[in-house]
Amino acid sequence: MPKKKTKKAAAKRFRITASGLIKYKRCGGGHLMSSKSRKRKRRLRNKNVFRRSISKRIVALFA
Description:
Low-confidence stretches: none
Distance between the termini: 14 Å
Radius of gyration: 15 Å
CATH topology: Factor Xa Inhibitor
């Protein structure tokens, strides 16, 4: 039986926390930042967490 391989695209985009939640970076923070408000840029800096229902599907990519 061959080993399960991690989907590298998922490994680059997501991190699994100790409690099993999935952290990801919000989109839209790469360029054209001068037209975005200070509040919006501040929120884009932070990581976000997926809901548990979506997390189950993403964890399957790591297994």
